[in-house]
Amino acid sequence: MKIGEGGVDQKFRCVCRIERRVALGLGIGFTLAPSLAFAQADPTRERPREGDVLVATDSDKPTPLTPGDLEVGAKQTMVWPMDAASGVVRNGSRLNKVLLLRLDPTGFDPATVERAADGVVAYSAVCTHAGCDVITWHADRRQLECPCHNSVYDPMEAGKVVSGPAPRPLPALPLRVADGRLVVAKPFTGRAGFQQV
């Protein structure tokens, strides 16, 4: 076969194009690698960890909350987890936003009793349907509601879905009290945020 007939010459051009694409892909990969590594190593983006304390999202000076800072039956308080040792507030991802409620534990189901601390329950503040913040509190029914598509959750029964399009309960963040402060006892019970099907 002669080079002019498209045999070897055509194969050589094809191989060169593939090699250029691979080199370009590797170049882009090496260029992005430091920023991706930084994003993964950014402590503000890390999910809540055991031992983290909780601080109000609207606080200028992060101060760890105590059960006494929350009124029984009042609207939820939005908080961020904070590394107690370093003081790093984990506010680099909205998936770390947590809602706190202090309720009368008399009506808690067994799972909620296990995760609550002095009547305080903590759940992901991000709706499992479309990712909006769960900001509506119905004190009369003791239920949480997402205003975007009206998913309703029961904080007394492990954040279960009462009505609406949400496909799963709000992930709970188990708590304990240490030195009078609310402290994360374990990571979220499920993946925070929404998941498209």
The CATH architecture designation of the largest domain is 3-layer Sandwich
CATH class of the largest domain: Mainly Beta
Q: What fold name stands as the CATH topology of the largest domain? A: Rieske Iron-sulfur Protein
Helix content range of the residues, please? 10-25%
**Multimeric state of these chains?**
single chain
For the sheet with most strands, the description reads:
4 strands, antiparallel
The 3D shape can be described as: globular
Write the element-wise H/E pattern from the N-terminal end onward.
HEEEHEEEEEEE
What does this structure look like?
With 197 residues, the chain is α+β, with helices and mostly antiparallel strands. It has two domains: 3-41; 53-184, 3-layer Sandwich (Rieske Iron-sulfur Protein). 20% of the residues lie in helices and 21% in strands. It has helices spanning 8-41, 110-115; strands spanning 53-56, 77-82, 98-102, 120-124, 136-138, 143-145, 152-154, 160-163, 175-178, 181-184. Strand 9 and strand 10 (181-184) form a beta hairpin. It is globular.
Produce a short descriptive summary.
The protein is of the alpha+beta class and 197 residues long.
Indicate the topology:
Elements: H1 8-41, E1 53-56, E2 77-82, E3 98-102, H2 110-115, E4 120-124, E5 136-138, E6 143-145, E7 152-154, E8 160-163, E9 175-178, E10 181-184
Antiparallel strand pairs: 1-2, 2-3, 3-4, 5-6, 6-7, 7-8, 9-10
What labels would you give this structure?
197 residues, alpha+beta, Rieske Iron-sulfur Protein, 2 domains, four-stranded antiparallel sheet, 2 helices, globular
